[in-house]
């Protein structure tokens, strides 16, 4: 298998509205509904053959840009603009290149144009992230290969010299690094790390919980899915956060193997974060949780993160960046401030995840301190979104990945029956039909990734089993 060159003939987008069955509160935002964007790309190889690929991603508001003066509709408009910028750049270039080559050629121009239009870097990354997945899906279909096999063989054509990107890895043997990863996901399972939002009921469902047969509390979710890994949201008030964690401990004490905490940029500075850690250490009611705490994610605001030294705190608990990881150079900058972890999140681009995984390998080897990558979620939905994110997490070798789309949304209940049946038939170990809809299958807290060892970027078929005519084509 080798990297193929091609031109990108067309990219189109569609949307489907997603309504949450439970409100999802993180940081200062509460999400009850939002669109999911779909991308479809057509490429033409140098021999004249064509191939198509697709991808999907939620348009979660108040995450890419948290400025309080912006409405959720304005946040959606930002992401649509990011998609349009990526399409304009990729399609306007008539020169053939590899999948990585198309990304690398336009990376800086897309971000520069986005900045001039007032889009923050994290929102700007959304467009290429979705387009790159659709393009690589087309590449995999053209080669008749799975995502894992194609990426391990560097069918994307990733080459750092001359790209001007990730210059800190210029001397790194990227081909060998890619080849060391699994070319197959057969037999691979990954733990689903269950998200507990700030508005989530704990021991018992709230009186207004939906009567749809699905879990409506942390206790019910743990019982149904067998979760042993948990991600708990923080609100930024040290005392209130410790009290909330103390309420959570009795609910999951007997089942938790691993816990992560997510600050979602809510702590105002390192001193405030230190106060929170001090309270954790002093309160015996959270001792069982602290004993299983793996890391704290994005405790400080994204801009402050890359300017404030937290080296004095990181020995107490590993710190990971997420919202601050907006550009390809963010992780090296965060490392200089004392951070040792970075999130893998499809909405930020799968090439970034690969490069950051390489950095973790290099730094851990050369510095003698553990640097790590963690799989985080953007409320990924059953279908293209969750399939591609799981395939990436599986290829990276992650032991667990945050999953919350199956909890806050009633599976594929809103999708046409034909789409649900196509996914059930195409991915029988990944999905199940229960409570009236097709949904992600989680047994014993684990997700079986074997079915993602299929043609394409975890799509199986060129149209991704998606009912494209049932969505609105808007841009």
Mean pLDDT, all residues: 97
CATH superfamily placement of the largest domain: Enolase-like C-terminal domain
Report the β-strand fraction as a percent range: 15-25%
Tally of separate helices? 15
The largest β sheet comes out as: 9 strands, mixed
What low-confidence regions span 5 or more consecutive residues with pLDDT below 50? none
Radius of gyration: 21 Å
Structural class, by secondary structure, is alpha/beta
Q: Would you list the SSEs in sequence order as H and E?
A: EEEHHHHHEHEHEHHEHEHEHEHEHHEEE
Inertia-based shape: globular
Q: Specify the CATH class of the largest domain.
A: Alpha Beta
Domain module count: 2
N→C terminal distance: 34 Å
**How many β-strands, per DSSP?**
14
At the fold tier of CATH, the topology name of the largest domain is: TIM Barrel
Model description:
- The chain folds into two domains: 6-168, Enolase-like, N-terminal domain (Enolase-like, domain 1, 2-Layer Sandwich), CATH 3.30.390.10; 189-470, Enolase-like C-terminal domain (TIM Barrel), CATH 3.20.20.120.
- A hairpin with a 2-residue loop joins strand 1 and strand 2 (29-45).
- With 475 residues, it is of the alpha/beta class.
- 54% of the residues are buried.
- It is 36% helix and 20% strand.
- The protein is globular, with a radius of gyration of 21 Å.
- The longest helix is centred in the first third of the chain and has 23 residues, at 121-143.
């Amino acid at each position: 298998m080798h990297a193929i060159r091609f031109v990108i003939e067309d990219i189109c987008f569609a949307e489907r509205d997603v309504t949450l069955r439970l409100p999802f509160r993180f940081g200062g935002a509460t999400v009850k509904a939002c669109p999911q964007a779909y991308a479809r790309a057509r490429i033409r190889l140098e021999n004249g053959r064509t191939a198509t690929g697709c991808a999907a991603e939620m348009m979660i508001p108040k995450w890419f840009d948290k400025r309080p003066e912006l409405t959720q509709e304005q946040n959606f408009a930002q992401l649509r603009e990011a998609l349009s910028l990526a399409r304009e750049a990729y399609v306007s270039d008539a020169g053939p290149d590899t999948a990585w080559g198309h990304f690398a050629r336009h990376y800086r121009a897309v971000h520069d144009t986005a900045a001039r239009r007032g889009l923050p870097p994290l929102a700007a990354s959304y467009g290429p992230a979705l387009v790159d997945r659709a393009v690589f899906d087309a590449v995999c279909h053209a080669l008749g290969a799975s995502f894992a096999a194609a990426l391990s063989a560097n069918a994307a054509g990733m080459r750092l010299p001359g790209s001007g990107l990730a210059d800190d890895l210029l001397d790194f043997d990227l081909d060998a690094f890619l080849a060391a990863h699994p070319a197959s996901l057969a037999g691979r399972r990954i733990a689903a790390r269950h998200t507990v939002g700030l508005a989530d009921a704990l021991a018992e469902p709230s009186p207004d919980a939906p009567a749809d047969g699905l879990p409506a509390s942390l206790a019910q979710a743990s019982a149904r899915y067998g979760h042993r890994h948990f991600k708990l949201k923080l609100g930024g008030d040290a005392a209130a956060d410790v009290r909330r964690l103390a309420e959570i401990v009795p609910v999951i004490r007997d089942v938790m193997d691993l816990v992560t905490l997510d600050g979602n940029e809510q702590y105002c500075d390192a001193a405030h974060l230190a106060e929170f850690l001090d309270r954790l250490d002093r309160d015996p009611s959270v001792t069982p949780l602290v004993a299983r705490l793996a890391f704290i994610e994005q405790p400080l605001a994204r801009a402050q993160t890359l300017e404030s030294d937290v080296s004095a705190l990181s020995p107490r608990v590993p710190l990971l960046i997420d919202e601050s990881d907006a550009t390809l150079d963010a992780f090296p900058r965060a490392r200089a401030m004392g951070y040792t972890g970075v999130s893998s999140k499809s909405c930020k681009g799968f090439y970034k995840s690969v490069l950051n995984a390489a950095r973790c390998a290099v730094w851990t080897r050369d510095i003698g301190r553990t640097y790590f990558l963690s799989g985080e979620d953007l409320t990924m939905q059953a279908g293209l979104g969750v399939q591609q994110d799981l395939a990436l997490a599986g290829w990276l070798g992650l032991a667990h990945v945050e999953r919350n789309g199956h909890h806050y949304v009633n599976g594929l209940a809103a999708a046409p029956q034909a789409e649900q049946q196509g996914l059930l038939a195409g991915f029988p170990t990944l999905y199940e039909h229960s409570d009236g809809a097709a949904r992600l299958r989680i047994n014993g807290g684990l997700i079986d990734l074997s079915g993602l060892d299929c043609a394409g970027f975890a799509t199986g078929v060129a149209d991704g089993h998606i009912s494209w005519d049932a969505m609105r084509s808007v841009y």
